[in-house]
Design a protein that fits this description.
Blueprint: H1 6-14, H2 16-44, H3 49-72, H4 81-109, H5 114-137
Helix pairs in contact: 1-2, 2-3, 2-5, 3-4, 3-5, 4-5
Length: 145
């Protein structure tokens, strides 16, 4: 008899804590891409750091939607993808507006600290983003018409 997969053991052992960890770990590549994109836009292309970060946030939210739908949460098949995407993006827009406002506050006073502000936002808003995403993908938000 084959032992259960490692992810099954983790889920049994840690329950929703494993899902939070999976959410945070799945976000690492997206975050690294966002830092690279932010630096490329702000420093490389000389785009205003506030506009660059807004572009990064929209891109990051779209990629995070796909990661959450296909890698983190298990009840994804019940939700029409377009409706789930709209709910995810609109709800995340509130969190990301707070994220962007914090970033803008720091960067407006210390323009060279844009990467530090981006990292601080992960620490400040990461868990809230997890609980929101969980509410979308586990049907705690109403996705029906």
């Amino acid at each position: 008899m084959r032992p259960p997969p490692f992810s099954t053991w983790l889920r049994h052992k840690f329950g929703s804590k494993w899902q939070l960890l999976r959410f945070l770990l799945a976000g690492i590549p997206t975050f690294c891409g966002a830092v690279f994109l932010n630096r490329s836009l702000a420093r490389g292309l000389q785009i205003n750091p506030l506009l660059a970060y807004a572009i990064v946030l929209v891109t990051q939210m779209s990629v995070n939607f796909l990661i959450c739908r296909y890698l983190v949460f298990e009840n994804r098949e019940r939700h029409p993808i377009a409706r789930a995407y709209i709910v995810f993006m609109l709800g995340n827009a509130v969190l990301r507006l707070l994220d962007w406002s914090f970033y803008a506050g720091i960067v407006s006073h210390w323009p060279d600290w844009y990467l530090e502000a981006q990292i601080a936002n992960v620490l400040l808003f990461g868990v809230a983003k997890y609980f929101f995403a969980r509410s979308v993908f586990e049907r705690k938000l109403h996705l029906e018409s």
